[in-house]
Amino acid sequence: MENSEGVKIESTVVSEEPLISALDIGLFVVIITVAYFWYFKRDKQSSSSEKKPYTIQPSSLSSIEQTSNSSFIKKLKSTGRSLVVFYGSQTGTAEEFAGRIAKEGARYKMKGMVADPEECDMADLVEMKEIQKSLAIFCIATYGEGDPTDNAMDFYEWLQNGDADLEGLNYAVFGLGNKTYEHYNEIAIYIDQRLEELGATRVHEIGLGDDDANIEDDFVSWKEKLWDSVCSHYGIEETGEESNIRQYKLVDCSEVLPERIFSGEISRLKSYENQRFPFDVKNPYLSKILVNRELHKSGDRSCMHIEFDIDGSKMRYDTGDHVAVYPKNSSELVEKIGKLLNADLDTVFSLLNTDEESSKKHPFPCPCTYRTALTYYLDITSNPRTHIMKELIEYASDPKDQEKLKLMASSTPEGKKEFHEWILRDNRNIVHILEDLPSVKPDLDHLCELLPRLQCRYYSISSSPKVYPKSIHITAVLVDYTTPTNRVNKGVATNLLAQLKPTNDGLPQPTIPIYIRRSQFRLPPKSQTPIIMIGPGTGLAPFRGFIQERDYARKEGREIGEMVLYFGCRKKDEDFIYENELQEYVANGTLTKLHLAFSRDQPEKQYVTHLLEQNADELWNIIGEKNGHLYVCGDARSMAKDVHNIIEKVVMEKGQMTNSQALNYVKKMEQQKRYSADVWS
User: What DSSP string describes 599-646?
Assistant: First the structure.
């Protein structure tokens, strides 16, 4: 309650101050300034947004279309196109296949365009029916354990959660997968079925490419039948014209300033000199290599333990994640290409898309030198696909070389056989082809257009962030082998890593670009949950992190569940990696049991699968009676499949189930993330 004294004081103060105080004036000035700034800044932004240079700037588009980058329908309509080929790609193969289909569309009077679903408003598919004789094709890879690729994730979720009316949409799907994985082509199959459920019309049956066999052959065979179906569906005929029009044109960049020339950056110019968080596939972190040591004790093979410095990067990882490493090609191979083609590798150039409406202006960061392109951006060590054979024909001056290329580029049984034997079986890369067909001298800029992008390599992280928050560890076997033509092929990433050894001589430490890829390969939320880990060879990598994390919890006084590890290698005294660490974990109680299989230390080979069969009671006790988790890491082609079969057998016998009950039990374990696999082929 206010008293008379208070009123009196208030009245006295008012009478002594001017009507508008200095504070009032100051506040008024601030308010006016902020209002002025907000009004004119907004106007400026509005004005600049009208002038903003979009990635796609066709001169024929209206101002409305220019501001609608994600509308592929508007691009199709404004450019008279009827074919759009979407790709879901993790390594670039699906994108390459999409480009080949779009290019061939011209032979059937279907002008095509390639589109990244991540950059498109896929709800526009409902409007495809407005374009006469239109067709949408989807080249979709299945990635990981039945997951969509990063760029197809939003489209996949849109199909799952939406109920769009796609009646009038004509489509076809080609899937890219690997039969060694359980979820073979799962995403492509789902998209094919879901589009039909939403009312779309399937013009041609789904194609399933198997990367474990010959995905190129699968694709070519499907593509030929696709065009037959297209002709039948639309009542059109092939024009017979071969479309060898270049997708990119060469631009002379000899006058470009040095500071505007790319030198190996993935996306942003000078990104390695001016690092910016967050770091991802397009913006990797340039990490110092802290440790690079040999894990094998003897023998002619090599396995490296490497530690990447992430201190100060703000990057965080979880146990079980992967780290992507960006490699570069050996200077020896790059120089060979320059000499074989009599090219000046230090010439600065750019490749510009001839399709003005394409969102992809360049096949890789441009401008750059040919040396940079061949070193950092292009894959020069993998087996080229048949479309490259076809493009090389015109550059062969020797009729014999020309005929050989024509044969391998054809889809005849003889051509497929020759391609399989000469390219795939003999393991030839583009350098070997140019050496063995000496009359073939392609223009270097055209070769740069044809070669696929050099991809980053993924490694399971073999450390725990609880123990090593400032570094990431990997375990990598050096890839080095002799081909049937007596050439030595070397793994691009591992041979580069082998050279990057830290020194104590005061010189700058070696660096390499990396980023962290999230994984679903996770420890149980509760540290008390028992687990079984099966990881022969470098399959041990993620489990080293698992064990470190559980050991950290134990040292903190928390209860931890049983940890059983199955590890195998050739010989105990040769390639038993991390032996001392594992024995120490057994001694301190973190690792409950360590089952070891040394395949060549006795007359009869013994593998981890043999030990699993011998320990059926232990397996069932943990996964059946104690509701524990089981993890597998390593080779998908044989080991992981054998383990899966053994688990089903153990569940059936020890759980006293029928075969179908056991299959359902294991399937439920997978759905509950109690049975996880991190495998490769």
Answer: TTSSSS---HHHHHHHTHHHHHIIIIIS--EEEEEEETTTHHHHHHHH
Give the single-character DSSP code of 359.
Answer: S
**Cα distance between residue 663 and residue 669, in whole Å:** 10
Q: Is 633 a catalytic residue?
A: yes
Q: Pick the catalytic residue: 68, 287, 313, 460?
A: 460
Residue type, 301: R
639 pLDDT band, cuts 50/70/90, is very high
- Buried residues in 550-580 as b, exposed as e (16+ CB within 10 A): bbbbbeeeeebbbbbbbbbbbeeebbbbbbe
Distance CA 406, CA 418 (A): 11
SS (H, E, C) 158-171: HHHHCCCCCCCCEE
pLDDT digits (tens, 9 = 90+) for 470-519: 999 999 999 999 999 999 999 999 999 999 999 888 788 999 999 999 99
DSSP characters for 371-400?
A: HHIIIIIB--SSPPPHHHHHHHGGGB-SHH
Residue 526: count of CB within 10 angstroms of its CB: 10
How do the residues of the chain divide into helix, strand and coil, expressed in percent and rounded to 5? 40, 20, 40
Do residues 448 and 370 make contact, with C-beta atoms less than 8 angstroms apart?
yes
**Which residue is associated with the tokens 């010959």?**
214
Cα diameter, the chain: 114
Tokens of 420: 């399989």
Q: Determine the Cα–Cα distance for residues 313 and 286; give it in Å rounded to an integer.
A: 9
Give CA–CA dist 597/184, Å, rounded.
30
Which residue of the set 158, 382, 426, 680 is catalytic?
680
Judge contact between 308 and 471, C-beta under 8 A.
Answer: yes
Check pLDDT > 90 for residue 545: yes
- CB within 8 Å of 675: residues ≥ 6 apart: 623, 629, 630, 647, 666, 669
Q: Which residue has the higher pLDDT, 265 or 56?
A: 265
Query: Which one, of 654, 185, 160, 678, lies nearest residue 666 by Cα?
Result: 654
CA distance 578 to 465: 18
* Selected catalytic residue, list 303, 633, 635, 676: 633
- Is 678 annotated as catalytic? yes
- Non-local CB neighbours of 245 within 8 Å, separated by 6+ positions: 103, 106, 354
- Average of per-residue pLDDT across 132-157: 93
DSSP character string of 446-463: HHHHHSPBPPPEEEEB-S
Phi, psi of 567 (to 5 degrees): -130, 145
Beta strands in 382-505 (DSSP E): 457-460, 471-477, 480-482, 488-490
- Interatomic CA distance for residues 95 and 99, integer angstroms: 6
Please name which of 306, 268, 269 lies closest in space to residue 287, comparing C-alpha atoms. Answer: 306
Query: Distance between CA atoms of 403 and 79, rounded to whole angstroms?
Result: 38
Catalytic (active site) residue 227: no
E strands present in 523-626:
531-534, 563-569, 593-598
As a whole number of angstroms, the distance between CA 196 and CA 202 comes to: 7
Which residues have C-beta within 8 Å of that of residue 332, sequence separation ≥ 6? none
Instruction: Yes or no: say if 192 and 173 are a contact pair by the CB < 8 Å rule.
Output: yes
Nearest CA-CA partner of 535 in 643, 670, 666: 643
* pLDDT one-digit tens code per residue, 345-387: 999 999 999 988 787 899 999 999 999 999 999 999 999 999 9
Which residues are CB-neighbours of 260 under 8 A, at least 6 positions away? 269, 367
